[in-house]
Amino acid sequence: MRKIVIAGNWKMHKTQAESLEFLHGFLKQLDETPDDREIVLCVPFTALGALSKNLHGSRVRLGAQNVHWEASGAYTGEISGAMLTEFGVRYVVVGHSERRQFFGETDETVNLRLKAAQNHGLIPILCVGESKQQRDAGETESLIVGQLQADLEGVDQSQLVIAYEPIWAIGTGDTCETLEANRITALIRSQLKNPDVPIQYGGSVKPDNIDEIMAQPDIDGALVGGASLTPDSFARIVNYQ
Ligand code: PGA
Fold first, then answer.
1. Which protein residue has the closest C-alpha to ligand 1 atom 2?
2. Domains of the chain
3. Which residues fall within 8 angstroms of residue 121, CB to CB, at 6 or more apart?
């Protein structure tokens, strides 16, 4: 049975105070949310402390947006698995296209981060996806198969979530057509040893397209950026019909 995982990715948004204000508006909208949906908030490191205290006893899981592969050391600006688990973090986004594009993340470092996350009992959300240029050049399938092969080398597929995030759909309002998103999700599944790995779609997921996205047979959830920043919009997404 594949799990449904709906994760918000707050990126570099929200102070502690703003995070708590979000939670106040969000948690009360989860009373009717079906139990089989895992709800995750991947937040900035500075919000982990406040959120972990206030999520106690709620069904929302805490997530982070990065983890380093070493346990400690001279790695300015990085964070270790133990630093995250101390706050009760359960999920961590790894290999997001913004990390690959702006911060020099490579398949090699993504692979190291995935293994480190799992060694700390964290479930990584691995992001893969093609740029507009790669799509136009007909390279989508080969790019994604290549990313999966390199990123998942030696990774335990029983503790893993994958997000298919076409880069051209992220933050643009330009959602990937749902049948196409489903086709690529199925392609990703065909590359895995464990067919039960939840595979999310990400890229301009909104309250008005979530129902159609979740109706696709191969899509097991969503990774949501902009629309996870307001309580009403993210609540509508986790409460998809
Ligand atoms: P978006 O971001 O929902 O704002 O397009 C998705 C993501 O980057 O994970």
1. 225
2. 4-238 (3.20.20.70)
3. 85
